[in-house]
Amino acid sequence: MSDAVIEVEGPPEEPPRGLFERLRADPLRAPELIALAASERHAPAAAAWAQERRRVYGSDPASLGRMAKRRHAQLARLEGAATGVGGFVTFVPDLVGLAWIQSRLVFFVAAAYGFDPRDPMRPAELLVLTGLYPDPQSARAALDGAGTTLAAAYVGTKLARDEALARRLLAMVGKRTGRRIAGRLIPFFAVAFNAVANERDTRALAERAIRYYGG
Q: What does the pLDDT look like over 41-100, one tens digit per residue?
């Protein structure tokens, strides 16, 4: 299949209602909470997508993987442009939205290469691919502890919680340099900056996922 084939779908899917509040309540475990929510929401969709695309386009995993990469890069670009209007005001929501799209990408790439997206190791692999854990086993152990209690919930002001949340999300979506962060804080300028940066970072994650699942 040619790389020129592009699927035109709807706007980026919004994170589940209430997810932002859970992340703000426990910002230090935000990536783990996103991975668990992503597994619940994205795994069935990824399985259905892969089954339908194989029926229509054939079963070549590399072609389906590239298809997933293109689509999620496009979604990330749209999401970044939409949230860039507010600069600092929309900074954390943009990071949540980008993390949500990138988590979806990993489940879809896994499905493209024939891995069951509903397997409990998929959210652990997501955390490894984003660079937060060295191996799926340690990531899975963290996930198993993430949903049991809020006893370790972050205590502090709303601003402190949002700052802690932003730091964890920045690590998750691959934004670790000051220059790449600063451009996201300027209203309207951030529209173009977010769009380009989100697409680039999502394509980079897709390449890592393709190498991981494609062997």
A: 999 999 999 999 999 988 899 999 999 999 999 999 888 775 555 445 567 888 899 999
Residue pair 69/206 in contact (Cβ under 8 Å)? The answer is yes
* E-only strand ranges, the chain: none
Q: Is 167 helix (H, G, I), strand (E, B) or coil?
A: helix
Of residues 36, 42, 43, 39, the one with CA closest to residue 22: 36
Taking the C-alpha atoms of residue 147 and residue 100, their distance in angstroms, rounded to an integer, is 18
CA angle 173, 174, 178 (to 5 degrees): 115
SS3 at position 115: coil
Q: Two tokens at 5?
A: 């084939």
Q: Rounded distance, CA 104 to CA 14, Å?
A: 11
- 3-class DSSP state of 77: helix
Domain locations in the chain? 19-144+155-214
Backbone phi, psi, residue 42, to 5°: -90, -30
Question: Cα–Cα distance between 38 and 129 in angstroms, integer?
Answer: 14
Largest separation between any pair of C-alpha atoms in the chain: 53
pTM value?
0.85
